[in-house]
Task: structure prediction
Amino acid sequence: MDRIKWEEYFMAQSHLLALRSTCQRLSVGATVVKDNRIIAGGYNGSVSGEVHCIDEGCLLEDGHCIRTIHAEMNALLQCAKQGVSTDGATIYVTHFPCLNCTKSIIQSGIKTIYYAEDYHNHKYALKLLDQSGIEYKKITFDQKHVAQYLLNK
Result:
């Protein structure tokens, strides 16, 4: 059996990160990659030191959990905190980024977004991505294929 493709490998990392999510509404993971090396990862959860949605329930306002920081933002903030440039990087996300995460991705210099699932794809986010020339692509992620690969090793 051939080894898994880079896209599968990095998307698998994002799905593993999503397993750390502390928000009950949706588990999301994001992996930032540069030169085929992982430079950051994130999942959606509370601010450090704050209670978690899985413990206290979501803190909802206008239908959105305001306690949660999105996976993409957590990954970008990890890069900022560590002084790692995201210019020209790629991000792999389990779900299409929200509008605010899309704007942050654009500002961070990321050039490509790969995502596994559509999730309220905002029309303005799509417009901004098209305007900025950032490639975004939905890629098939077959968890069974990756699991089968691991079993055959």
